[in-house]
Amino acid sequence: MAFDNQPVTDGEAPYDDWADLYDKVYAYLDYDIGFYVQQAEASGGPVLELGCGTGRIALALADAGFDVTGVDISPRMIEQANAKAKSLGLVSKATFVVGDMADHDASGSGTEHAFAMVCFPFRSFQSMLDVGEQREALENAAAQLQIGGVLVLDTFFPDMEQLGNRHDEALPFHIRDVEQADGGNIIVWGQNLWDSVSQVNEARLIIEELDATGRSVARHFRDFDLRYTFRYEMEHLLELSGFTLEAVYGDFDGGDVTEESDDLVWVARKTAS
Question: For residue 45, what is the DSSP state?
Answer without folding.
Answer: S
